[in-house]
Amino acid sequence: MERRLTAGAGLLTRNMLGLTLALLLGGLVLRWFNGVRPIAAVVIIALLSWRLVLKPEEWLLEESRRYWLGLLAALLAVYAVTGLLWQANLTRRIGEEPSTTPGYSVLVGFNQDSGGAWNQEDSQLLFSLGDAPGATAQQAQEGALEAAKDRITSGKVALLPLLRDKLRAFLGSDHACVGYVGSVVRHTKLFALACNGFYYAAMVLAGGALVRLWRNRERFAVVLLPLYVLGLTCAQMLVEVAGRYHYSLIPVLLLLGQAALFLPAPAETKIFQKNRESS
Length: 279
Prior knowledge:
Helices cover 73% and strands 0% of the residues. The longest helix has 35 residues, at 2-36. By secondary structure, it is mainly alpha-helical. Mean pLDDT is 84; it is low at 1-9 and 267-276. The chain is globular and about 55 Å long.
């Protein structure tokens, strides 16, 4: 019995060390991704939602609560520290401190006439703010944010029609990449059909997976995938929208779609959980 307990403690230590290293690496990867597109916060919120809301029973146990709080703290600490390093690197490369305020993106996101997409009017406003004598990037973005507040509170924004247009622009199709290379490739209609066909097939599979997850009442890590899709879509409704911004959803849809094909039946899941508890 004593030997078995020692072996179990050693296995738990190794598992925790491995998971801690994975989360440390995850913090670095999230920061790297965030440098390309600011989506890391959506992943972190999805992770916290999964642990705090969808698996609340584990927070009733002190050992489990300490375990997960330590791991999440490691992830957030790495992400925060690397953020300072990333900002310092950008400042060195561009010669001034980058803005931390997404004012222009919010301003464009609430432009009723453009459906929340890029438009010349808002672009000219940003450039005029940036061209002011002595203006910094932060000041230009703060000015754009003030303009966004005025637009939102003007009473001229019809929110529901705007959200409908933005949702259509964000998720409606996946052939924007064909437009970018349309001047150098032939058969653009065929390529657009292929891109959209693949995209819609991934969405159908992901939808089937959501139905199976709901019917099986599953709460394991695959639930992070629909949480990310939901979180990114909601976040996109607040800022500038474009079809290419959904590119990070495609691998998520593919990973989620496999659950529609390979997710165990409810009976098999219960047997697996029972065997795991008994072991």
